[in-house]
Amino acid sequence: MLNYNLPYGHKQIKVNIPKNRIAGELVSKAHTFKPKETEVEIVEKALANPIGSKLLSELAVGRENVVIISSDHTRPVPSHVTMPILLKEIRKGNPNAKISILVATGMHRHTTKQELIDKYGKKIVDNENFIIHDSQDDSQLVKVGILPSGGELVINKYAVDADLLIAEGFIEPHFFAGFSGGRKSVLPGIASKATILANHCSEFIGSNHARTGKLEGNPLHRDMLYASEKVNLAFILNVVIDCDKKVIAAFSGEREQAHYEGCEFVKELSGIHAVKADIAITTNGGYPLDQNMYQSVKGMTAAEATLGEKGVIIMVSECSDGHGGEEFYRTFKNAESVKEIMNKIVARDRHETIPDQWESQVLSRILLKYPVIMVTSASRKIVEDMHMRWASSVESALQMADELLGRKDGKIAVIPDGVSIVVRK
Question: Fewer CB in 10 Å around end: N or C, the chain?
Answer without folding.
Answer: C
